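Reopening this one. Same input as before:
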Amino acid sequence: MTAPAAARPSALPVAELAGTLPAAAVDAVLRAALLEDAPYGDITSQTLIPADARATAVLAARVPGVFSGGEVFAAAMKLTDAGADVELLVADGAAFAAGTPLARVRGNARAVLLAERVALNLVQRMSAIATKTAEFAALVHGTGARITDTRKTTPGLRVLERYAVRCGGGANHRFSLSDAVLAKDNHLAVLTGGDASRLTAVLQDARARLGHTTHFEVEVDSMEQIEPVLAAGVDTIMLDNFSLPELAAGVALVAGRARVEASGNVNLATVAGIAATGVDVISIGGLTHSVAALDLGLDIELEPVPAPDQTAH
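Same output, byte for byte:
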């Protein structure tokens, strides 16, 4: 993996990232994950670890990357031990080298061990997404193209995964089906019954029934669809699986009448060329649906027991 520290463009400032991950959503994810992982408690720790034992654990990077999920790590530890002391050593959105300590927690040993796997699973995934997004963002830096995610997220984890995309310098597409209109090929097939001559009319009718603040985007898969879609007054036109020459021709044809989004066949080898065609947005499902967890570890050390006072009588 290419270390992002050298090439990564500036993402959102830390001040802007702070507080953008809803605490209630984080709590809901963590409670569900802990219920799954320890439905009747952690019998290993309850059997082996004294109830009053204390521990210090350091979240450490085994590989370079971009950090995301500090709040999640802290919340996981505090959910199992409200009195835990969590110190975040690296800010979300910051690049780090292998071996970097990312966070430190001090608390009840059983509680730290109970939260360990849930915290690691989530932070490893979030940091992997941030790292992958940063690699894409670096490759289009200076072109004006925006890297965005899609709805191809892990069920139940969308709020965390999309936050991780922002940590990596990307932006978010519509959060859900309720947020914006995005008419894709299957919608258009149903609407037009295969009659391409009806495309403008059916889209205009749909547009007329929308509120004035609702964004309207339409996906096209051929050059011939661009003008009929633009004639309906859409906000964004998605050019799906277009070749580079087709993308450039599509951007020229749109000529600023709508925002142009490119989708399909986007990877680290193709994204720079796609951005160079002049598109405004490049959406990439792979930011969230196919990343491998970043190698982070939690190194736990029990606090030493004080030696008996030999001078006591």
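So the earlier flakiness isn't reproducible anymore. For the record, The radius of gyration is 24 Å.
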